[in-house]
Amino acid sequence: MPRWSIIFVRLVDRLNYGVGRFAMYLLFVLMAILMWSLISKNVLNPSLWTLEMAQFAMVAYYILGGPYSMQMGSHVRMDLFYARQSPRQQAMWDAFTVLALLVYLGVMLWGALDSLGYSLGLKWPEGALLPEIGRLERSPTAWRPYLWPIKLIMCIGFLLMLLQSVAFLIRDIATLKGETI
Predict the structure, then answer these.
(1) How many domains does the chain have?
(2) pTM of the predicted model, to two decimals?
């Protein structure tokens, strides 16, 4: 395998490992938010922000932890026939499914970027080179937080998952060639 592909795979693995380890701690943030929600509802005045902030923390935990989960092999897979196959046949099936995953993640990233642009108030008029900046999108709830931070996290998560999928595809190609990365 070319040197650049080995460097790419190792860099993506290291990046997703670090982000995934960070994302694990978001579960504690989520628990703290829910604990505060419980206390504020029973002792103080209920906080408006706790439910939505818990949802944002859960989305960040899930989206940023996805590439790490994929890297560690923690995703659900059907092993009825797959486990009985040789590593070369497994790599062939994995390469095929990763190609389908790349298409899916590309569409998801495209939609997430479009949604992020909308939440930032970016509009491209016909024929213009630069966007017009409008209002920032806010949630329609009573708390009304800006939505661009969580949409940015979603874009980052989809990009990291896309990069991890490309790294898996490179590994599968190396396995089909009889090499290891």
Answers:
(1) 1
(2) 0.88
